[in-house]
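Lecture 7 notes: from sequence to structure.
We start with the chain below.
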Amino acid sequence: MAKFCSNTVDEWVFVQRLIKQEEKMKICSNWKRSCTKNILFILFTTGIFLNCSLNIVVASNSDKNTNTAILITLPEMKIVKGLIKRGDTASSLLNKYLPLKTIYEISKRSSDVFPLTQIREGRPYKIILHENHLVGFEYEINKKDRLVVQKEKDIFSINQLPIQYDVDLEVVSSTITSTLFEAVRKSGEQTELARKLADIFAWDIDFLRDIQPGDQFRVLVEKRYRDGILSGYGTIQAAFFTNSGKLFKAFLHKSDNGVSRYYDEKGRSLQKAFLKAPLAFSRISSKFTKKRLHPIFKEYRSHPGVDYAAPKGTPIKTVGDGVIKEIGYNRGMGNYINIRHYNGYITEYNHMSKLQEA
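Predicted structure tokens for the same chain:
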């Protein structure tokens, strides 16, 4: 085997580099002759893709006999962003850019995808203009989907597409001093995460009556970002919750039929016959008792139930699966609904602000 001293190795490496450099120069020389005619096209294409925000692109002509520059003016693109205000309609948003006849046609065709009459206050929208002519309109239906109206030649295509997020899997933890709601905010997260966490352990923990100072939680959750800003949460992959010294665990698992549910460390489903409470965040205004001062009749009566006070519009869940036995309104109970469960039990829900289809 040949041996080299350090100087010999350095010289050998240097020679090899020179040989490779000469080979590259020969290849480049031949390639340059064949590509001269295409340089203008390459520069033009690069200018479009890398400098699409500029109005002017300079492309040089590499012909030996000429020394000129070509100025190419790119079309101006403008995006108008905003939130739907009270009283806004598709017509009021678009009539500045489109005739009413075109807006009517778009609305008519959109009804099978998403009716434009259902745009709601507070939802984001985007109008895309090309040289002051509308070429696109986007409306965020919810946190998952958006309506996309896009002009292709003289025809508008209408589609419902998923919103694109940057998703990171992160760990969030905190210690409770008063409520789960407050603990989540203290950890720097949005209240949506508290609702998701309460939904997982709702069969084991009453988040109104069971929570104690010193309780802790730790979750592995998908956090969704748009333009670097937190826009909400995806799926909680795993969660630990310590309540009054007892540790509850939840792990997400998708079965062979595609249904995802939460299980404990022994593979037992967390879903049971009944939830511990129909509301996750609120306060108890009246407990189950045999003697309570009636707020209207001002006399003591039995109160065979629990009254939860919550902000208007708070969604209410039934404590278990079942079918509607009775639904309606009466003077004593207000808006009410009675659910018959498959095990024979009946639960009643009264004094609701309104009844609405999900």
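Points to note: Residues 83 and 209 are 39 Å apart (CA to CA). The chain is about 20% helix and 40% strand.
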